Every structure is written in C-alpha cells, then in structure tokens.
Amino acid sequence: MFIGRASVCFLSSYRETMSLYAPTYGSSGSKAFTRRLSTSFAPAYHHHLAHISSWPIVRRSFQDAAAAAATVPAPLTIPPFTLGRGHVCGVLAAVVGGGSSSSTGAYIPIRSHNHSYSRSSYSHSVHSVGSFRAAPTPRELGFRMPGEYERHAGTWMAFPYDPYLWRDEARPAQQQQVAIARAISQFEPVWMLADPKVYNVACDYFREVSGVEVIPVPTNDVWVRDWGPTCLVRDDPSTGDREVAAMHFDFNCYGSPAKMEHGLPPLLPDWSRDRAAGRSLPQLAGMRSFECPLHLEGGAVHSDGDGTIMVTEESVLHWSRNLELTQQQIENLLREYLGAERVIWLWKGMVGDEQGTNGHVDNVAAFAAPGTVLLAWSDDPVADPHLRTICQRNLEALQEQADARGRTMRVIKVPCPNPPLLVVPGDVNSLAAAAQAAGYNTCQPAGRRLPASYINSYIVNGGVVVPQFGGQHSRNDEEALVAFAGAFPDRKVVGIYSRELLLGGGNIHCLTQNLPAAAAKRSS
C-alpha cells in the first residue's frame, strides 16, 4: 500500500463520497465505484442535486462568477467491496507528518458526525477496505487558501428563518441580514441561499436589489463561513490564470457529537442541511472539491494568502473536535489542506464564545495583508480582566512567531466594545423554552455576555464591512471605523449595525463566505 507523505485518503458516507467524486471524476473506474455504492437514499440525493443544478439562476450565477478549473487528478483506485444499507465507512488512512512513502504511519480515524468514536471500530473499517492509492492533497497540487483581501467573484450568504434560533419569527435577524447583504452588494455580487420555506420572503426583501440573487437551497442556519466551502486557489504565473477549488472540513456543528456523548446539549438538533448545502455550492459552481478529515469550521482559520494561517488553540484543539490527533498532526493536516507553510497558534478566542464556536480565530484576529494582523484589544484590568489577559497572550503569540516569509507581525489593535455587551430581557426569544425542548441550545438568557468584536468584519472588493453595536458603544464604533480605515487606506470602510445577529452567536464574517475570482489579481 502506497500513501505519500502527509497524503490523506478516506471514505465517508455515500452522500459525501458522491459529492466529492461522482460529479468530478469521470473515469470508468469511478463510475464503477459509484454503481457499487448504491444505497436506498441514492436516488433521492441525486434527484435533489439535479433539481438544484437545473435552476438557471444557480447555473448562471455560480458558473459565470467562478470560472472554475477543468483539470482533475486521477481518481482513487479502490478494490470492489460491499457497502451495506445505511452503513458508513468513515475511515481515514493517513501518514501524518510521515517521512518517505515506505515509512510506517499511523491510521488516523475520522469521527463520523453520527457515529461512534471507538478506535477499534475504525481499525476494523480501515483494514476491511483493502489497499488503495491516495489522492494528492491540495498543497501537493499547488493550491493555497487565499487572503480575504484578494479579489472575490462574489459572496455566499444564507437567510435566517428558524424561530427557535431567532426571536420574533426571525424578522429582526432577516432585516439586519438584508442590510449586510445590501452593503456587500455595493462592492461585489451576493448569492443569498434561502431555505424553500422562506424563499419567497427572501425574494421580496431583495426584489429591488440588483446585486443580490436569492437561490433556493435548504439550510439549517446562517453561518456560511463555518459550514460553507473554504475556497482554495492555484495560480499559473505564466498565464495569470487561476483555478478555484473548494475544501470542506468535516463539519459536525462545533463538535456536537462529542459534546452529546458527554451529556452536553448540541447547538442544533440537526445540521444535515447546512452540511449538504456547503457541499452543493462548489458542485453548482463547477469546482473540484477536497475533503479535509478535520472536524473544524471555516471561521477557525484565517489566511494571509502568502503561506501563513492563524488559528486558536482553544478552538482547534478543543476536546470535542479532534481528540485523537496531536497538535502536530492537526497542524500537518492544516498545511496540507490549506496549502500553508506556517501555522500561527493564538491562545484563545473572544470571551462569551466559549460555548458557541469554542473560540474561533475570526473573532479575535484577522490578516489585513501579509505581515499585518488586526487584533481584538482590551487593556482594562477592572471592567474586563479576562479579556485583557486573552488579548495580551494573543499579542505575545503574534510577537513570538514569524510568518512563513520570516516577517515579524505588524499588529493593529482594535479596541473591543466597552463595557461588554450583555443580553437584556428584551433580547430573549419568547420561544426559548420550546426551543430547548426541541433540542436547541442557542437561545441566550438575560445577563449572558455576547462575544462582541469588531474583528468579525468582512473584506470585500474595494471595501470592508464592519460590525456596529450602537447605543453606549457608539464611541467604540467610531474608534473601530478609524482603526479599519488606517489598516485599509485604499478601501471604503462601511459600518453596519448587527447586534441582532450577534444574539445568534456570530457576526458579519461568520455570515459570509467569499468565492475567489478566477483571475490571479490580488489588489482590490
């Protein structure tokens, strides 16, 4: 059996496997593989995908904007085997950080989002598959995660609708989501995914907005940054052409299966529509996809586009995500799947985010450019001592670690809202008790701290969209806009009030996912 250095190869559920291979690899071998993986739900899945793909608005929007690549690697060579009804292999055969192709490496299991975490069961599954040839990783193929400052083809967003997630039948959240989408559409196209339940409602909101197209795609929630595709690019320096591809983390709703095993409630009782929606987007855009075996979310990583990514220990090393992997193994996989050379580890994310994303980096630090980082900052030892400690330790981490090109980081401190934002009685969802009974763990009780940060902003073509909180934080809002204007002198900085969406646990960066432009131009 041959598996190259740090190469990964795995089999997941039929739906996920088909989303990765069936639309992409057209060889007779992969077709035979598809036929062998016939299960009871295959016809329904393919009907669903074909139905979405047939919508002219979907084909036109994504294909025109993405201009994605046609070159594809050889398919996996997999011996015949039988996959029983409803069975999920969920195996990963990997040499992580391994040496030569003949080196002895450890089998690393994938914890499927609905299945057991037992090492022994995965060991059995690995050996039952037999020998196969590993596909190359994105890094081996020359892909990298671009910086957000690089030019976009457009932005994906999703429309809020679930009354168990959003108060007052989600109307306040919808209005703020519309305002954010309108602001972004002044700079680049926006594709708003709307669950069929509220497709007509979303269309009514955007009927007069030429830069926003509403696309009917089933979703659970709005955090496209986390469950949507993390896009990669591969530039051809001789022609200036760029291939855009998608990379999917193994999204399991912020470690919900492991949390449930320990008696903790998941954020959502079901996240299957979000997971499927994220995988449908690159298919509709005609892009190839890569599956990363890490249980992570897009908001857990930030890239400078020049070989360096940032993460937090709190989130990426959280016990509910990838407990069977060491920090070094996780770092190796991040490098392979994001095309990175250097991983900078910050300590923690924002106070108030411990039970949500478990401290995503995109709420505390963001690359403005290679070598330049915007950092959430608080130095008030009385009003916010815990956040002060987090900010100082994150700053120390940035000062102690050079980037992939050996640069010492230039850090721009962006003050956090002070005093901290808290949930007030009027914010509480009147359906909180019913939501909890239905398996939701997202309703915020009065008095709870909100993970408010201006870093959770979004860089667009020629601009930056920054959260605003208003009221007693108006002075902080202005200070943040000044800081962003200094960091982005060639971009227009736009502030958007977004406190309602913060009640759901995230903000503007969490709500958006950028599709890179197919031209290898990095300026705005």
From TrEMBL:
GO process annotations (BP): putrescine biosynthetic process
Annotated coiled-coil segments of the chain: 316-343
Classification via InterPro entries: Peptidyl-Arg-deiminase_porph (IPR007466)
MF term (GO), any: protein-arginine deiminase activity
Any Pfam family matching the protein: PAD_porph
Keyword terms, alphabetized: Coiled coil, Hydrolase
Endpoints of the signal sequence: none
Domain of life: Eukaryota
Annotated protein name in UniProt: Agmatine deiminase
Taxonomic source organism: Volvox reticuliferus
